[in-house]
User: Which sequence fits this backbone?
């Protein structure tokens, strides 16, 4: 009987081995993948950078801050259909800059194109391609309902608590005056650049720049101008904004999103609210808007966003670094993490924002017409056509009429993150903001830089403003302000950039 049981056990053994093999293979693969992931994360370290701090400038803080303060007191608001008063203030803003920087008007080549200004500082080697610095002096309006939320009046320009307060300090009078202050300081010191410097200051950036930057760019193109580097506003020095990265992060915008505004319109029969149809025009419109918000365009960590996060990962703690360096397997987790914040989610996709809506004339009247506007900021991987296709597909309702408002524009080209122009800008930032980590990034809004893209491949967006977590909402928002210390830093940054160029 014992001998009869042996063959039966022998027959069972191979099947047990077969069951174990897949488990062993899975465990081995898991171990190998884990080792690869950890190794990739540990190998990603920040390369040592030995950049000496830029020498300090002897600046008259009180004088410089007061000049910016007076500029802030001019309510140079841009409007698509400006009143005579608004046009007068824009004119006065240009007059103020011309009068304040009279030495530059006298010593440099100066042009005034209506309310836009151009300063040209000839270099000692005019055959070198010039440095082109951009800024604008117009600002967005302040909503009347929000006035009571401001700590100080938005056009007070008051200097208190270590800050200059008011609309335009961050966007973008601070940049415009810092550039001119830097040039005036260098001129006073007897400095003359090897490479010519051109400063182009627009007055309608906040409404698209069609009369300011676009016109100046066309003139420069006709002149055959080919700038060595074009620098505009767009990104800043982030201080404590990215909680997984210690220290300062300077984002250099190497591209910016496009934009399109769409109007959605629904027309149905009106009548008394006591006898409604199953859906009113407003109900149909609301359903379309809800669908657009619920089904945004695809998000991916690629292109400029990938460059940005790959660079930041060098300074991150282990776990976020592990996610970023192993996107081939962790992308779903990484996307979920990044999309939890509006600011990082916007780097990954074309955004959808319902901005205005109107319907009805009384609570008891069915609206015959309901309209809404939706703003899309177009990611580099998308286009105007793909946005339109997405909107039609998601709404999928012939009752909703879709039309384009204004003039849309595609996303910009992507500037290189290597070469002499990039190195010049990166090194200057490191010199002026010691210990900063520099990373290429995508600018979510629009700047005048897009109008100049045809002049050079080296178009960058950075102006040296420091922004903490509480400052992000101040741009175009309540309590816009800049610290006096940071304003002087910006002047030093522009002066150092001109010296190095």
Assistant:
């Amino acid at each position: 009987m014992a001998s009869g049981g042996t063959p039966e056990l022998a027959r069972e053994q191979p099947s047990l081995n077969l069951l174990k093999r897949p488990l062993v293979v899975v465990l081995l693969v898991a171990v190998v993948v884990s080792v690869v992931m950890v190794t990739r994360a540990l190998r990603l370290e920040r390369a040592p950078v030995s950049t000496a701090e830029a020498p300090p400038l002897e600046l008259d803080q009180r004088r410089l801050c007061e000049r910016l303060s007076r500029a802030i007191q001019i309510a140079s608001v841009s409007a698509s259909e400006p009143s005579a008063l608004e046009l007068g203030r824009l004119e006065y803003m240009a007059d103020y800059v011309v009068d304040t920087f009279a030495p530059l008007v006298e010593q440099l080549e100066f042009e005034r194109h209506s309310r836009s200004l151009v300063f040209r500082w000839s270099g000692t080697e005019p055959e070198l391609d010039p440095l082109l610095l951009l800024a604008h002096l117009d600002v967005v309006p302040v909503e009347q309902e929000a006035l009571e939320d401001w700590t100080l009046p938005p056009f007070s320009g008051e200097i208190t608590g270590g800050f200059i307060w008011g609309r335009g300090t961050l966007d973008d009078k601070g940049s415009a005056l810092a550039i001119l202050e830097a040039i005036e300081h260098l001129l006073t010191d007897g400095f003359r650049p090897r490479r010519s410097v051109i400063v182009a200051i627009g007055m309608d950036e906040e409404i698209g720049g069609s009369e300011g930057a676009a016109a100046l760019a066309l003139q420069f193109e006709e002149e055959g101008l080919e700038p060595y580097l074009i620098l505009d506003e767009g990104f800043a020095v982030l201080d404590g904004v990215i909680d997984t990265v210690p220290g300062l992060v300077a984002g250099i915008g190497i591209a910016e999103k496009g934009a399109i505004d769409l109007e959605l319109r629904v027309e149905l029969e009106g009548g008394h609210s006591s006898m409604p149809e199953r859906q009113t025009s407003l109900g149909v419109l609301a359903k379309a808007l809800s669908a657009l918000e619920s089904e945004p365009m695809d998000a991916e960590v690629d292109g400029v966003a990938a460059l940005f996060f790959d660079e930041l990962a060098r300074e991150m703690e282990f776990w976020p670094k592990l996610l970023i360096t192993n996107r081939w397997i962790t992308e779903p987790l990484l996307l979920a993490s990044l999309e939890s914040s509006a600011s990082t989610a916007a780097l990954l996709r074309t955004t959808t924002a319902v901005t205005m809506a109107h319907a009805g004339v009384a609570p008891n009247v069915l609206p015959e017409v309901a309209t809404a506007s939706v703003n899309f900021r177009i990611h580099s991987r998308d286009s105007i056509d793909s946005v339109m296709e997405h909107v039609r597909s998601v709404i999928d309702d012939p009752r909703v009429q879709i039309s384009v408002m204004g003039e849309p524009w595609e996303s910009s080209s992507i500037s290189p993150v290597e070469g002499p122009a990039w190195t010049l800008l990166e090194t200057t930032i490191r010199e002026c903001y010691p210990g900063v980590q520099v990373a290429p990034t995508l600018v979510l809004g629009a700047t005048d830089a897009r109008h100049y893209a045809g002049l050079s491949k080296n178009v960058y967006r950075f102006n040296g403003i420091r922004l903490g977590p509480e400052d992000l909402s101040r741009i175009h928002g309540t309590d816009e302000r800049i610290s006096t210390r940071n304003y002087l830093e910006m002047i030093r940054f522009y002066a150092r950039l001109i010296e190095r160029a």
